[in-house]
Amino acid sequence: MNPKTPVAFASLPPEIINEICSTLPTSPLLSLRLVNRQLGDIATSWAFRHVRLGARQGCYDHQHFVWIAQSEKLRPLVRQITCDTWLGHTAKHSSRFAFNHPTEFLNSLPLIRCFHNLASLHLRFSEHTKHDHMDAMDTETDNFRYRVLDTAFNCLAGTWSAESQLEMDENVLPYSFEADYETAPALVADSGPLPIKELTVSNLADFHDERFTESEVFKKVISMSSLKDLKLSITLQEVEKDHDDDYEPPDALWFREKYVMFENLPRTWLSPSVAGNLRVLSLYSRDYWGWNPKMDFRAVRPGHGPDSGFPNLKVLALGKYIFSHDWQVEWIESLGQMNTSGGLEELYLDRCPILVQARHDAPADHGTTVVGRDSDGNSVEVSNDGYYQMDAMLDDDMFEPELTYEDYPLRWHHIFPRWRESMKSLRVFKMGHSSWNSAPEQTMDAWCNEGTFQERDREDLATLLHHNNFRSFDSPSPPPNKRDKVTTGLEKYRHGTGINQHPRHQAAYIYFDIDVAPTQWCEVYWPWCAYSWQPRLDNEVREKDKAELALFLDGVQGRRMGSGDS
Q1: Cα angle vertex 213, ends 211, 215, to 5°?
Q2: Which helix (DSSP H) or strand (DSSP E) does residue 124 occupy?
């Protein structure tokens, strides 16, 4: 760097300096603090805008977190907090019967309440989760997750107290846990609720824990009028075989808790109060969802008026969501009718195929369900045609049930023309496939190119940057072809890599076969199939899909260019 560069940089108008600092990593921001007072103040505000509390063994995130919480100068600068429960690749069980819980992390977590200017909270759990009654040695049990969520939400609600926390710890944590809640700065007065604007939860367990979702603190936080941005990714519970016996764990498909969790989303995480406020919603799951397990968005603020569903929503991102019914197409068309644009502005479909056929052993559900009442108090009843009876499917007493086939006629070339005519406010549409199985290559390279992170173990870094696609869906897309390696301009991928929009990832189809393992979901290929019983789609369908997608994208791009967006 030219010796005169800092001087020239410091002479720029403050608003320009602020804009530049917003794009810089932490290391250069800390260096810029030494140039002069004005530049130092701006750089400091960005250097400490985000703070991280991690449980990873061998790192000192908790010390840094506590230090900032105790600093009268720095803690007001914090706008974003990430709390990460991952213990790292070197984590070891302290014995065969007890797990060494992250004591420093758990003791530091209540300090969230010290950051009165907090706007965004990200809770990041491990992708691995187990029930306590299945394997109490694993740290990411239901009790541990409940403890983290309850503590964080009590801090946000302004209801945290050491007494209630100690009682919680005694009930859900191992007897060996040593609590210490004396590190909070004495001069930090309780300021009541922290009106956050954004809440994200990575790897939320697919388990309906009523202890949390029925609690007053959950309802208080999720119904905050300030909460406009909600992003959730849902992981799958796992059960490992006990090597001391011959017990074979059931497939995750048969866990009833998963179905109950998705069924209850409209009255828990997507309850009417939060659904009415949201401007941004991202919902991802590690496995396909929407059809099985069924998630009926018609139950979210049910009705047909402009105030139903998500009336103020502007951005929707769905990951591994299955399209199977015409009502889903209509539901997306109806979103955001009361926002400033009169409809949805951005739509991201990440690995969201259409179901073409299902081979199942459960009886079809031809009944109806009352999903709630509309704004006028009238009952809203919806059809269950095209779905299966959950109780029958999970019934252990069913003996050699008959396998049945059901075809689904919905195709992408049916959907795109409708959206082209009805979604006149849509300015961004991305469809494709993000990085699901590993950290995005471009984001990894961007971080490794920074001197600050060269010494960090690459395996740890890869884990820290993984499972963020539900947050980075609107980040720059990678090159469609994986062989086109990015060597310049990596900075734009530093906060995430968006959806790969290669044609092979777009307008996809899928089928469900209850008799296939380890996954019942199988992609539909064009037009060749490995087995005669696999459903086929001819090239005519593919060509129609491509043509209608191109017309739809032309319309979206035209609106974006007309509004001045690039």
Answers
A1: 65
A2: strand 120-124
Per-residue HEC secondary structure of 291-306 comes to ECCECCHHHCCCCCCC
Both tokens assigned to 197: 């604007």
Q: What is the Cα–Cα distance from 51 to 6, expressed in whole angstroms?
A: 26
Helix axes 326-333, 412-422, angle to 10 degrees: 20
Q: Which amino acid is at 405?
A: Y
Q: Are residues 416 and 548 in contact, defined by beta-carbon separation less than 8 angstroms?
A: yes
What are the backbone dihedrals phi and psi of residue 107, each rounded to the nearest 5 degrees, phi first? -70, -30
The DSSP annotation for 56-94 comes to: -TT--HHHHHHHHHH-TTTGGG--EEEEE----TT---S
564, two tokens: 């001045």
What are the beta bridge partners of residue 235?
Answer: 205
Starting at the edge strand found earlier in the chain, the sheet holding 354-360 runs 404-407, 354-360, 509-513, 521-523
Rg (CA), the chain: 25
* Cα gap 489→27, rounded to integer Å: 18
Instruction: Identify the residue whose tokens are 């494709």.
Output: 432
Alpha helices in 71-178 (DSSP H): 103-108, 142-157, 162-172
User: 400: buried, middle or exposed (CB in 10 Å: 19+, 13-18, 0-12)?
Assistant: exposed
Q: Which of 238, 280, 283, 231 is CA-nearest to residue 258? A: 238
Which one, of 373, 382, 279, 380, lies nearest residue 326 by Cα?
Answer: 382
Which tokens sit at 552? Answer: 């739809």
Cα gap 86→323, rounded to integer Å = 33
Q: Using the structure block, give the residue that is written with the tokens 């899909």.
A: 545
Along the chain (566 residues), what's the average pLDDT of each consecutive run of 10 residues?
A: 57 76 75 72 82 86 90 94 87 47 91 96 90 59 93 96 92 80 66 93 94 97 98 83 45 79 96 96 97 96 93 98 98 96 97 94 90 91 92 68 87 98 97 93 82 62 89 93 77 90 94 83 69 76 96 94 66
Write 1-9 long-range contacts (CB < 8 A, 24+).
6/32, 6/35, 6/39, 7/35, 9/35, 9/39
